[in-house]
Amino acid sequence: MSNFGEDDNILKLNNPELDRKMGGLPLPSLTLVEGANDSGKTIIIQQITYGALVANKKVLYITTEDTAKGLVNNMERLNWNIIDHYLTGKFKVTTMNTMNMNWTEEVSKYYLIALTNFIKQRGKNYDIVIIDSLTHLLTHASDNDVMEFFSTCRYIVDQMERTFVMSMHPYAINQELLVRLRTFCDGHLILEIKSFRDRTALTINVAKLKGATRNVSETISFEVSPAYGIKILPFSSTKG
């Protein structure tokens, strides 16, 4: 019996409410997760990771914001049992040190090329490549270098049939460049912190999702539950 249910080309996230709202991610694909600090980018990325591991996919997780131990502990704390996948090598966590760097266009170019080469060499052993987050690498990079990086990722998706999920802050690149990058992406999720009457919630706006099983017309509201990660909230707003 398939782990994906009716469609082997859709990755379910192993969160019934979120899967019902979003429909899952197409495989293979390139998805960009965009959001400000504390908007839930990492938790969404980790939910996708957990869904992939449950579906028996091998995941390469490149983090610029955590250690391997910290990441694994955080996921285990949310009752996502990934430790066996980590110990057997199906879940590989690689830390990319981007903190306290003197970022220039030249340094950014070097890092993006190094990251691309690493993914080409190591990514072929994994089904899904996660990058959380690209912000430091993109902020000072030239538009051409950013386009070249995404173009290479697109090539790997199409030729090697690997899936990419990458996160970044909205200030990392200008809006004109972001519009151009969306042409490379199959999915684009925009996360925000919004107020609904008397409470604040995290939200997901599915700006683009090719091949999804449903058309998402509403902004999905959620909170992080210590018991099991993402908890979908019963209020939403229609996208304008």
Description of the structure:
- 35% of the residues lie in helices and 28% in strands.
- It has helices at 16-22, 41-54, 68-77, 83-87, 105-122, 135-139, 143-160, 175-181, and strands at residues 10-11, 25-26, 30-35, 59-63, 91-95, 128-132, 163-168, 187-196, 199-209, 218-225, 229-232, 237-238.
- Strands 3, 4, 5, 6, 7, 8, 9, 10, 11 and 12 form a ten-stranded mixed β-sheet that branches.
- A hairpin with a 3-residue loop joins strand 10 (218-225) and strand 11.
- The radius of gyration is 17 Å and the shape is globular.
Main traits of this protein?
12 strands; globular; 240 residues; ten-stranded mixed beta sheet; disordered N terminus; 35% helix; 8 helices; Rossmann fold; alpha/beta
